[in-house]
Amino acid sequence: MSWYKKLHWQIIIGLVLGLGYGVLAAGAGWGSFTSDWIAPLGTVFLNLLKLIAVPLILASLVVGVASLRDLSTLSRIGGKTFGLYLLTTTIALVIGLVLVNTLQPGRTVSEDTRTRLEQTYQDKVEMSEDMAASAKDRGPLQPVVDMVPTNFFDSASDNSNMLQVVFVAIFIGIGLLLIPREEAQPLLDVFESLNELVIRLVEVIMWMAPVGVFGLIADAITSIATDSPGDILGLLGALGFYAMTVVAGLGIMVCAVYPVFVTLFTPLSVGCYFRAVLPAQLVAFSTSSSGATLPVTMEVAEKNLGVSEEVASFVLPLGATINMDGTALYQSVAAVFIAQVLGIGLAVTQQLNIVLLAVLASVGAAAVPSAGTVMLVVILESIGVPSAGIALVWAADRPLDMLRTANNVTGDTMVASVVAASEGALTVPIDEGQLTMADVQGAADGSA
Ligand code: ASP
Protein backbone atom coordinates (compact mmCIF):
# COMPACT_ATOMS: atom_id res chain seq x y z
CA MET A 1 0.00 0.00 0.00
CA SER A 2 1.26 3.51 -0.84
CA TRP A 3 2.66 5.33 2.17
CA TYR A 4 0.34 8.29 1.81
CA LYS A 5 -2.70 6.07 2.31
CA LYS A 6 -1.55 5.22 5.82
CA LEU A 7 -3.34 7.19 8.48
CA HIS A 8 -0.27 8.17 10.47
CA TRP A 9 1.36 9.69 7.39
CA GLN A 10 -1.77 11.67 6.65
CA ILE A 11 -1.79 12.95 10.24
CA ILE A 12 1.90 13.87 9.98
CA ILE A 13 1.17 15.79 6.78
CA GLY A 14 -1.70 17.61 8.54
CA LEU A 15 0.63 18.42 11.42
CA VAL A 16 3.44 19.74 9.23
CA LEU A 17 1.03 21.81 7.11
CA GLY A 18 -0.56 23.15 10.32
CA LEU A 19 2.87 24.16 11.61
CA GLY A 20 3.77 25.84 8.33
CA TYR A 21 0.44 27.61 8.13
CA GLY A 22 0.67 28.71 11.79
CA VAL A 23 4.10 30.29 11.31
CA LEU A 24 2.92 32.01 8.10
CA ALA A 25 -0.33 33.23 9.68
CA ALA A 26 1.47 34.53 12.78
CA GLY A 27 3.92 36.47 10.59
CA ALA A 28 1.21 37.81 8.26
CA GLY A 29 -1.20 38.77 11.04
CA TRP A 30 -3.97 36.35 9.99
CA GLY A 31 -5.01 35.78 13.60
CA SER A 32 -8.71 36.48 13.22
CA PHE A 33 -8.98 34.65 9.86
CA THR A 34 -7.37 31.64 11.52
CA SER A 35 -9.66 31.68 14.55
CA ASP A 36 -12.77 32.13 12.34
CA TRP A 37 -12.00 29.66 9.55
CA ILE A 38 -9.17 27.30 10.50
CA ALA A 39 -9.48 26.73 14.26
CA PRO A 40 -13.06 25.35 13.98
CA LEU A 41 -11.71 22.39 11.97
CA GLY A 42 -9.65 21.41 15.01
CA THR A 43 -12.42 22.18 17.48
CA VAL A 44 -14.93 19.97 15.67
CA PHE A 45 -12.42 17.09 15.67
CA LEU A 46 -11.65 17.61 19.35
CA ASN A 47 -15.35 17.85 20.27
CA LEU A 48 -16.08 14.61 18.41
CA LEU A 49 -13.33 12.84 20.34
CA LYS A 50 -14.64 14.19 23.64
CA LEU A 51 -18.21 13.33 22.67
CA ILE A 52 -17.29 9.72 22.20
CA ALA A 53 -15.05 9.36 25.28
CA VAL A 54 -17.68 8.72 27.98
CA PRO A 55 -19.81 6.21 25.99
CA LEU A 56 -16.57 4.53 24.92
CA ILE A 57 -15.29 4.08 28.48
CA LEU A 58 -18.67 2.93 29.73
CA ALA A 59 -19.41 0.42 26.99
CA SER A 60 -15.92 -0.99 26.58
CA LEU A 61 -15.16 -1.26 30.27
CA VAL A 62 -18.48 -2.90 31.17
CA VAL A 63 -18.05 -5.40 28.34
CA GLY A 64 -14.36 -5.84 29.17
CA VAL A 65 -14.91 -6.58 32.86
CA ALA A 66 -18.03 -8.69 32.30
CA SER A 67 -16.22 -10.83 29.74
CA LEU A 68 -13.43 -11.73 32.19
CA ARG A 69 -14.15 -15.14 33.51
CA ASP A 70 -14.16 -14.26 37.18
CA LEU A 71 -13.16 -11.73 39.79
CA SER A 72 -9.73 -13.26 40.32
CA THR A 73 -8.85 -12.55 36.67
CA LEU A 74 -9.98 -8.98 37.20
CA SER A 75 -7.86 -8.53 40.31
CA ARG A 76 -4.84 -10.14 38.61
CA ILE A 77 -5.09 -7.80 35.61
CA GLY A 78 -5.82 -4.88 37.93
CA GLY A 79 -2.76 -5.65 40.07
CA LYS A 80 -0.45 -5.83 37.05
CA THR A 81 -1.89 -2.64 35.61
CA PHE A 82 -1.56 -0.59 38.80
CA GLY A 83 1.89 -2.04 39.50
CA LEU A 84 3.19 -1.10 36.06
CA TYR A 85 1.63 2.35 36.20
CA LEU A 86 3.29 3.04 39.53
CA LEU A 87 6.62 1.63 38.39
CA THR A 88 6.82 3.63 35.15
CA THR A 89 5.72 6.86 36.85
CA THR A 90 8.42 6.41 39.50
CA ILE A 91 11.05 5.74 36.79
CA ALA A 92 9.94 8.93 35.00
CA LEU A 93 10.28 10.94 38.19
CA VAL A 94 13.72 9.59 38.99
CA ILE A 95 14.91 10.38 35.44
CA GLY A 96 13.49 13.92 35.74
CA LEU A 97 15.18 14.54 39.08
CA VAL A 98 18.54 13.15 37.97
CA LEU A 99 18.51 15.29 34.81
CA VAL A 100 17.46 18.53 36.48
CA ASN A 101 20.00 18.13 39.28
CA THR A 102 22.79 17.26 36.88
CA LEU A 103 22.11 19.82 34.17
CA GLN A 104 20.96 22.59 36.55
CA PRO A 105 18.92 24.52 33.94
CA GLY A 106 17.88 27.09 36.59
CA ARG A 107 21.41 28.47 36.64
CA THR A 108 21.06 29.88 33.10
CA VAL A 109 18.11 32.19 33.83
CA SER A 110 19.21 35.77 34.56
CA GLU A 111 17.70 37.99 37.24
CA ASP A 112 16.24 40.23 34.54
CA THR A 113 14.54 37.36 32.70
CA ARG A 114 13.14 36.09 35.97
CA THR A 115 11.47 39.45 36.65
CA ARG A 116 10.07 39.64 33.13
CA LEU A 117 8.65 36.13 33.36
CA GLU A 118 7.06 36.87 36.72
CA GLN A 119 5.42 40.04 35.42
CA THR A 120 4.24 38.50 32.16
CA TYR A 121 2.55 35.44 33.64
CA GLN A 122 1.12 37.01 36.80
CA ASP A 123 -2.53 36.42 35.76
CA LYS A 124 -1.89 32.77 34.85
CA VAL A 125 -0.32 32.25 38.29
CA GLU A 126 -3.41 33.62 40.04
CA MET A 127 -5.71 31.46 37.93
CA SER A 128 -3.71 28.29 38.66
CA GLU A 129 -3.46 29.11 42.35
CA ASP A 130 -7.25 29.40 42.56
CA MET A 131 -7.70 26.10 40.75
CA ALA A 132 -5.12 24.35 42.86
CA ALA A 133 -6.45 25.76 46.15
CA SER A 134 -9.37 23.36 46.21
CA ALA A 135 -7.09 20.40 45.48
CA LYS A 136 -4.68 21.40 48.23
CA ASP A 137 -7.16 21.75 51.08
CA ARG A 138 -8.37 18.20 50.76
CA GLY A 139 -7.55 15.22 52.95
CA PRO A 140 -5.25 12.44 51.73
CA LEU A 141 -8.15 10.10 50.90
CA GLN A 142 -10.18 12.73 49.04
CA PRO A 143 -9.17 11.39 45.57
CA VAL A 144 -10.68 8.03 46.55
CA VAL A 145 -13.85 9.74 47.76
CA ASP A 146 -14.02 11.78 44.55
CA MET A 147 -13.86 8.64 42.48
CA VAL A 148 -17.21 7.41 43.79
CA PRO A 149 -20.06 9.52 42.42
CA THR A 150 -23.44 9.95 44.09
CA ASN A 151 -25.19 10.34 40.76
CA PHE A 152 -23.91 8.60 37.68
CA PHE A 153 -25.66 10.96 35.27
CA ASP A 154 -23.81 13.91 36.80
CA SER A 155 -20.49 12.15 36.18
CA ALA A 156 -21.39 11.16 32.65
CA SER A 157 -22.38 14.70 31.80
CA ASP A 158 -18.92 16.13 32.53
CA ASN A 159 -15.83 14.86 30.73
CA SER A 160 -13.59 15.90 33.62
CA ASN A 161 -15.21 13.16 35.74
CA MET A 162 -13.80 10.31 33.69
CA LEU A 163 -12.45 8.51 36.73
CA GLN A 164 -15.98 8.32 38.13
CA VAL A 165 -17.23 6.86 34.85
CA VAL A 166 -14.38 4.32 35.01
CA PHE A 167 -15.45 3.40 38.55
CA VAL A 168 -19.13 3.00 37.65
CA ALA A 169 -18.30 0.94 34.55
CA ILE A 170 -16.08 -1.45 36.56
CA PHE A 171 -18.78 -1.64 39.22
CA ILE A 172 -21.49 -2.54 36.68
CA GLY A 173 -19.13 -5.04 35.04
CA ILE A 174 -18.47 -6.73 38.39
CA GLY A 175 -22.23 -6.82 39.07
CA LEU A 176 -22.79 -8.52 35.72
CA LEU A 177 -20.16 -11.13 36.63
CA LEU A 178 -21.94 -11.82 39.89
CA ILE A 179 -25.46 -12.45 38.57
CA PRO A 180 -26.44 -15.56 36.59
CA ARG A 181 -25.31 -15.43 32.96
CA GLU A 182 -28.81 -15.64 31.47
CA GLU A 183 -29.92 -12.66 33.53
CA ALA A 184 -26.81 -10.63 32.68
CA GLN A 185 -26.97 -11.39 28.96
CA PRO A 186 -29.71 -8.92 27.86
CA LEU A 187 -27.92 -5.95 29.45
CA LEU A 188 -24.57 -7.21 28.21
CA ASP A 189 -25.99 -7.36 24.68
CA VAL A 190 -26.96 -3.70 24.96
CA PHE A 191 -23.45 -2.70 26.08
CA GLU A 192 -21.86 -4.92 23.42
CA SER A 193 -23.94 -3.29 20.76
CA LEU A 194 -23.12 0.18 22.11
CA ASN A 195 -19.46 -0.82 22.14
CA GLU A 196 -19.54 -1.87 18.48
CA LEU A 197 -21.28 1.36 17.57
CA VAL A 198 -18.74 3.49 19.40
CA ILE A 199 -15.80 1.65 17.83
CA ARG A 200 -17.23 2.32 14.36
CA LEU A 201 -17.82 5.96 15.23
CA VAL A 202 -14.20 6.32 16.34
CA GLU A 203 -13.11 5.05 12.94
CA VAL A 204 -15.35 7.60 11.26
CA ILE A 205 -13.93 10.39 13.47
CA MET A 206 -10.38 9.30 12.59
CA TRP A 207 -11.26 9.93 8.98
CA MET A 208 -11.06 13.63 9.72
CA ALA A 209 -7.96 13.36 11.94
CA PRO A 210 -5.51 14.85 9.38
CA VAL A 211 -7.72 17.92 8.87
CA GLY A 212 -8.47 18.19 12.59
CA VAL A 213 -4.80 18.02 13.49
CA PHE A 214 -4.06 20.68 10.87
CA GLY A 215 -6.65 23.00 12.47
CA LEU A 216 -5.46 22.36 16.03
CA ILE A 217 -1.78 22.95 15.30
CA ALA A 218 -2.39 25.97 13.06
CA ASP A 219 -4.51 27.55 15.80
CA ALA A 220 -2.05 26.70 18.58
CA ILE A 221 0.90 28.28 16.74
CA THR A 222 -1.07 31.36 15.70
CA SER A 223 -2.46 31.97 19.17
CA ILE A 224 0.87 31.47 20.93
CA ALA A 225 2.24 34.21 18.71
CA THR A 226 -0.83 36.48 18.91
CA ASP A 227 -1.89 36.16 22.57
CA SER A 228 1.57 36.43 24.03
CA PRO A 229 3.53 39.60 24.37
CA GLY A 230 6.04 40.54 21.73
CA ASP A 231 9.06 39.22 23.55
CA ILE A 232 7.68 35.68 23.83
CA LEU A 233 10.45 34.32 21.65
CA GLY A 234 13.07 35.91 23.84
CA LEU A 235 11.49 34.44 26.96
CA LEU A 236 11.16 31.05 25.31
CA GLY A 237 14.84 31.28 24.40
CA ALA A 238 15.74 31.92 28.04
CA LEU A 239 13.76 28.84 29.00
CA GLY A 240 15.40 26.81 26.26
CA PHE A 241 17.74 24.88 28.53
CA TYR A 242 14.92 24.02 30.93
CA ALA A 243 12.71 22.92 28.03
CA MET A 244 15.56 20.81 26.64
CA THR A 245 15.92 19.12 30.03
CA VAL A 246 12.23 18.15 30.01
CA VAL A 247 12.45 17.03 26.38
CA ALA A 248 15.55 14.93 27.13
CA GLY A 249 13.70 13.21 29.99
CA LEU A 250 10.63 12.53 27.85
CA GLY A 251 12.95 11.29 25.10
CA ILE A 252 14.59 8.81 27.48
CA MET A 253 11.18 7.53 28.60
CA VAL A 254 9.80 7.10 25.10
CA CYS A 255 12.95 6.01 23.27
CA ALA A 256 14.64 3.92 25.97
CA VAL A 257 12.46 2.95 28.93
CA TYR A 258 9.30 1.89 27.06
CA PRO A 259 11.22 -0.01 24.36
CA VAL A 260 12.96 -2.01 27.13
CA PHE A 261 9.57 -3.06 28.53
CA VAL A 262 8.23 -3.84 25.05
CA THR A 263 11.29 -5.92 24.19
CA LEU A 264 11.45 -7.79 27.48
CA PHE A 265 7.78 -8.47 28.05
CA THR A 266 6.05 -8.64 24.64
CA PRO A 267 6.72 -10.41 21.36
CA LEU A 268 6.47 -7.09 19.49
CA SER A 269 9.50 -5.49 17.89
CA VAL A 270 10.19 -1.91 18.92
CA GLY A 271 9.75 -0.68 15.32
CA CYS A 272 6.36 -2.35 15.00
CA TYR A 273 5.32 -1.00 18.36
CA PHE A 274 6.10 2.60 17.41
CA ARG A 275 4.50 2.30 13.97
CA ALA A 276 1.39 0.97 15.68
CA VAL A 277 1.04 3.71 18.27
CA LEU A 278 2.08 6.67 16.11
CA PRO A 279 -1.49 7.83 15.27
CA ALA A 280 -2.32 8.06 18.99
CA GLN A 281 0.94 9.91 19.73
CA LEU A 282 0.22 12.42 16.98
CA VAL A 283 -3.34 13.04 18.15
CA ALA A 284 -2.11 13.39 21.75
CA PHE A 285 0.52 15.88 20.57
CA SER A 286 -2.07 17.93 18.70
CA THR A 287 -4.80 17.92 21.35
CA SER A 288 -2.64 18.03 24.53
CA SER A 289 -5.30 15.85 26.11
CA SER A 290 -4.96 12.15 26.85
CA GLY A 291 -8.68 12.07 27.64
CA ALA A 292 -9.60 13.33 24.17
CA THR A 293 -7.04 10.95 22.64
CA LEU A 294 -8.47 7.91 24.44
CA PRO A 295 -10.71 6.76 21.55
CA VAL A 296 -7.67 6.77 19.25
CA THR A 297 -5.46 5.09 21.87
CA MET A 298 -7.96 2.25 22.18
CA GLU A 299 -8.31 1.96 18.44
CA VAL A 300 -4.56 1.62 17.83
CA ALA A 301 -4.04 -0.70 20.79
CA GLU A 302 -6.69 -3.13 19.60
CA LYS A 303 -6.23 -2.83 15.86
CA ASN A 304 -2.54 -2.15 15.44
CA LEU A 305 -0.97 -3.72 18.51
CA GLY A 306 -3.41 -6.61 18.78
CA VAL A 307 -4.26 -6.05 22.43
CA SER A 308 -7.46 -7.92 23.26
CA GLU A 309 -10.59 -5.87 23.84
CA GLU A 310 -10.87 -7.02 27.46
CA VAL A 311 -7.38 -5.83 28.35
CA ALA A 312 -7.48 -2.62 26.28
CA SER A 313 -10.84 -1.60 27.66
CA PHE A 314 -9.67 -2.04 31.22
CA VAL A 315 -6.09 -0.76 31.04
CA LEU A 316 -6.43 2.24 28.71
CA PRO A 317 -9.34 4.24 30.22
CA LEU A 318 -7.66 3.80 33.60
CA GLY A 319 -4.30 4.83 32.15
CA ALA A 320 -5.70 7.94 30.46
CA THR A 321 -6.95 9.16 33.82
CA ILE A 322 -4.30 8.01 36.29
CA ASN A 323 -1.09 7.14 34.44
CA MET A 324 0.81 10.24 33.40
CA ASP A 325 4.52 9.52 33.23
CA GLY A 326 5.28 12.54 31.05
CA THR A 327 3.37 14.84 33.38
CA ALA A 328 5.15 13.47 36.46
CA LEU A 329 8.56 13.88 34.80
CA TYR A 330 7.71 17.41 33.72
CA GLN A 331 6.54 18.30 37.23
CA SER A 332 9.72 17.05 38.87
CA VAL A 333 11.94 18.99 36.45
CA ALA A 334 9.79 22.13 36.68
CA ALA A 335 9.64 22.09 40.49
CA VAL A 336 13.41 21.81 40.90
CA PHE A 337 14.04 24.29 38.06
CA ILE A 338 11.83 26.90 39.75
CA ALA A 339 13.63 26.34 43.06
CA GLN A 340 16.99 26.75 41.28
CA VAL A 341 15.93 30.03 39.65
CA LEU A 342 14.63 31.39 42.95
CA GLY A 343 17.84 30.31 44.67
CA ILE A 344 16.11 27.86 47.00
CA GLY A 345 18.15 24.76 47.79
CA LEU A 346 16.13 21.54 47.96
CA ALA A 347 17.37 18.86 50.32
CA VAL A 348 17.24 15.18 49.33
CA THR A 349 14.20 14.64 51.54
CA GLN A 350 12.35 17.46 49.80
CA GLN A 351 13.22 15.94 46.43
CA LEU A 352 11.94 12.54 47.59
CA ASN A 353 8.82 14.35 48.68
CA ILE A 354 8.47 15.58 45.09
CA VAL A 355 8.43 11.94 43.94
CA LEU A 356 5.56 11.11 46.26
CA LEU A 357 3.64 14.29 45.51
CA ALA A 358 4.13 14.02 41.76
CA VAL A 359 2.88 10.41 41.72
CA LEU A 360 -0.29 11.61 43.45
CA ALA A 361 -0.49 14.77 41.34
CA SER A 362 -0.22 12.81 38.10
CA VAL A 363 -3.03 10.52 39.29
CA GLY A 364 -5.11 13.51 40.32
CA ALA A 365 -4.38 15.62 37.22
CA ALA A 366 -7.24 15.65 34.73
CA ALA A 367 -6.40 14.35 31.27
CA VAL A 368 -6.77 17.81 29.74
CA PRO A 369 -4.40 20.56 28.56
CA SER A 370 -2.25 22.26 31.23
CA ALA A 371 -3.61 20.10 34.08
CA GLY A 372 -0.05 19.14 34.99
CA THR A 373 0.96 22.76 35.46
CA VAL A 374 -2.02 23.48 37.71
CA MET A 375 -1.08 20.51 39.89
CA LEU A 376 2.47 21.81 39.97
CA VAL A 377 1.19 24.58 42.26
CA VAL A 378 0.28 21.95 44.86
CA ILE A 379 3.74 20.36 44.64
CA LEU A 380 5.53 23.70 44.95
CA GLU A 381 3.59 24.73 48.02
CA SER A 382 4.16 21.40 49.68
CA ILE A 383 7.93 21.65 49.28
CA GLY A 384 8.07 25.25 50.43
CA VAL A 385 8.70 26.93 47.07
CA PRO A 386 6.44 29.95 46.30
CA SER A 387 3.74 28.82 43.89
CA ALA A 388 4.05 32.11 42.01
CA GLY A 389 7.16 30.43 40.64
CA ILE A 390 5.06 28.73 37.97
CA ALA A 391 5.22 32.07 36.15
CA LEU A 392 8.74 30.98 35.30
CA VAL A 393 7.61 27.97 33.29
CA TRP A 394 4.36 29.15 31.66
CA ALA A 395 5.99 30.44 28.47
CA ALA A 396 7.07 26.92 27.57
CA ASP A 397 3.94 25.18 28.85
CA ARG A 398 2.05 24.54 25.62
CA PRO A 399 4.84 22.85 23.61
CA LEU A 400 5.88 20.82 26.65
CA ASP A 401 2.24 19.87 27.29
CA MET A 402 1.99 18.53 23.73
CA LEU A 403 5.10 16.41 24.25
CA ARG A 404 4.25 15.14 27.72
CA THR A 405 0.74 14.18 26.60
CA ALA A 406 2.26 12.13 23.76
CA ASN A 407 4.50 10.49 26.38
CA ASN A 408 1.50 9.81 28.68
CA VAL A 409 -0.37 8.06 25.89
CA THR A 410 2.69 6.05 24.85
CA GLY A 411 3.09 4.84 28.44
CA ASP A 412 -0.54 3.68 28.52
CA THR A 413 -0.19 1.68 25.30
CA MET A 414 3.06 0.12 26.53
CA VAL A 415 1.40 -1.08 29.72
CA ALA A 416 -1.60 -2.35 27.75
CA SER A 417 0.65 -4.45 25.51
CA VAL A 418 2.73 -5.80 28.42
CA VAL A 419 -0.40 -6.75 30.41
CA ALA A 420 -1.98 -8.28 27.29
CA ALA A 421 1.18 -10.28 26.51
CA SER A 422 1.33 -11.60 30.07
CA GLU A 423 -2.29 -12.73 29.81
CA GLY A 424 -1.82 -14.36 26.39
CA ALA A 425 -4.11 -11.65 25.02
CA LEU A 426 -1.83 -10.05 22.43
CA THR A 427 -2.81 -11.56 19.14
CA VAL A 428 -2.97 -9.71 15.84
CA PRO A 429 0.35 -9.46 13.98
CA ILE A 430 1.15 -5.81 13.58
CA ASP A 431 1.28 -5.60 9.80
CA GLU A 432 -2.08 -7.24 9.43
CA GLY A 433 -3.66 -4.98 11.96
CA GLN A 434 -2.13 -1.68 10.79
CA LEU A 435 -4.82 0.96 10.70
CA THR A 436 -5.07 2.43 7.23
CA MET A 437 -7.16 5.10 5.62
CA ALA A 438 -8.87 2.32 3.66
CA ASP A 439 -10.18 0.86 6.94
CA VAL A 440 -11.32 4.22 8.08
CA GLN A 441 -12.93 5.15 4.79
CA GLY A 442 -14.52 1.72 4.60
CA ALA A 443 -15.98 2.29 8.05
CA ALA A 444 -17.22 5.69 7.01
CA ASP A 445 -18.93 4.18 3.95
CA GLY A 446 -20.37 1.47 6.11
CA SER A 447 -18.60 -1.16 4.06
CA ALA A 448 -15.69 -2.07 6.32
N1 ASP B 1 -2.22 17.40 29.08
C1 ASP B 1 -1.81 16.25 29.84
C2 ASP B 1 -2.68 15.06 29.47
O1 ASP B 1 -3.81 15.22 29.10
C3 ASP B 1 -1.87 16.49 31.30
C4 ASP B 1 -0.83 17.54 31.66
O2 ASP B 1 0.33 17.16 31.85
O3 ASP B 1 -1.14 18.74 31.66
O4 ASP B 1 -2.21 13.94 29.55
Mean pLDDT: 86
State the fourth-level CATH superfamily: Sodium:dicarboxylate symporter
Number of beta strands: 0
Number of helices in the DSSP assignment: 22
* N-to-C SSE string, H for helix and E for strand: HHHHHHHHHHHHHHHHHHHHHH
- Radius of gyration in whole Å, from Cα? 22 Å
> How much helix is in the residues?
over 70%
Q: Could you please describe the fold and organization of this structure?
A:
This protein is mainly α and 448 residues long. It has a single domain (3-139, 154-423), classed as Sodium:dicarboxylate symporter (Proton glutamate symport protein, Orthogonal Bundle). 80% of the residues lie in helices and 0% in strands. The chain has 22 helices and no strands. The chain has helices spanning 7-28, 31-66, 71-103, 111-120, 122-136, 142-147, 152-156, 162-178, 181-207, 209-227, 232-238, 240-265, 270-287, 290-305, 309-322, 325-341, 348-364, 371-382, 391-394, 397-422, 430-433, 437-445. α13 (270-287) packs antiparallel against α20. It starts with 6 loop residues before the first helix and ends with a helix. It binds aspartic acid. Aspartic acid binds next to α18 and α20.
